[in-house]
Amino acid sequence: MKQGKASIRFEQPPEVVAAASVVGKKEGEGPLGACFDEIEQDPMAGQDNWEAAESELQKRAAETAIRKAAVGKSRIRYIFAGDLLGQGIATSFGMAGLGIPVFGLYGACSTMGESLHLGAMTVAGNCAEYVLCATSSHFGSAEKQFRFPLEYGNQRPLSATWTVTGAGAVVLGRQGGTVRITGATAGKIVDYGIKDSMNMGAAMAPAAADTIYRNLVDFGLEPGYYDKIITGDLGTVGKEILLQLLKDKNMDIEKQHMDCGLEIYDNEKQDTHAGGSGCGCSATVLAAMILPQMEKRKWRRVLFVPTGALLSTVSFNEGQSVPGIAHGISLEY
């Protein structure tokens, strides 16, 4: 099933059996508000801290996806899930009560792509009948860990994105869905030396360009093969850089390109500056908008490219750059 240098073409494509999204109040007030499965009005989700709130959102998304799949929790063999927090604590506590074996993942905001890639390989390799792929993020927990506590009230530059409070989950199986994962392209770490922790779009765009280019080359495709090429959370800054980097390689995806971070919020009315970000950004938009649009046959082929800035408080404080990574998932009706 190996294709080119970094891709896989699945001979028996895994199918998306069900998907679910749970978001916070701000996300529910955005353009996709009517599309989410659940909108939690309380930013603490009834918990004592931001981190526990994120775990609660991830648990709810997972339980909702499993319920919608109607296959029974006992038939979900593995969970592939992750988040942005240290040691993946949102996932550790969020998935602990499900009683299903868990692979904890970290690919920053690209984690949903990583989980879908690994989950699809597991199902296609006949190692599981069904798997659950999930990610989450929370504005409060992300600001607390990577930038400033909310109580500080710091000003945000226009290049900054707003971390999505939300979680998305997808059940993959050998049968039972209308959208299939026909291929996948693993991303490599790309570092252009960006050191601005408030400009994640610039850090991630080179990795997104590399993965999109590699996917099209590995499969011998032109951009027009896909109805949409959808990145995870480049925002306004990263989108412009991405398009230019690919044009420099004589590849124009401007007609096909969308970005989840620019879809989930109304940047003018909601004052999110460059758009949305976080593990939950691409995951919730996938479940709430991308898959439903494909099921309605509005889009038949989508290249889904969650993007991640590998930002660490340790490396950042030591003066290191912020590398980027992106994983490509080929979805077809």
TrEMBL record:
GO terms for molecular function: acyltransferase activity. Pfam families: SpoVAD (PF07451). Gene3D superfamilies: Stage V sporulation protein AD. This is Stage V sporulation protein AD. It comes from Cuneatibacter caecimuris.
